[in-house]
Amino acid sequence: MDFKKLFRKDDKAVSPVIGVILMVAITVILAAAIGSSVFSHGAAQAAPQASLDIKKDTDSEAAKIAVRIEHLGGDTINLDKDSTRIIISDGTTTKDAIAATTSATSTLSVGDVKVFTFTQDPAPTSGSADIGITDGKTANIKFVDKKSGQIFLDRNVAF
Fold this sequence. Notes:
By secondary structure, the chain is an alpha+beta fold. The chain has helices at 3-6, 14-39; strands spanning 50-56, 65-74, 77-78, 84-89, 94-101, 107-108, 113-120, 138-145, 151-158.
């Protein structure tokens, strides 16, 4: 065995080739890690899509904010506190509200017409939980889907 041939000094190309292979491998691994983290979040949640008609309920007590909501088409809407955030603004103050209805459920399906009254959420420890909208004022009512954070109803209602 010839040891001079075994330890030659002209093996210069080995180090750059191994360096390039390692750099390519690191790039592929990083691209795979970033790609899997970006594309693994799944589909985004969407707010319910529905056509709703909302107006003042003329049959209710004057002391309460009551609106008549008619579901004209689209997805079923759940107006309970856990599914929908209700925001009512009179132009100067904005309050979170809770919708209450006399029916057994607070869901609206196509063709449903329900009367909802709103009280302040959370109710104050002292004083009235009334929203504070009086006759003759206009209130902006927004329904926000809690899962997606998207507004699915934004209307002005004259009281």
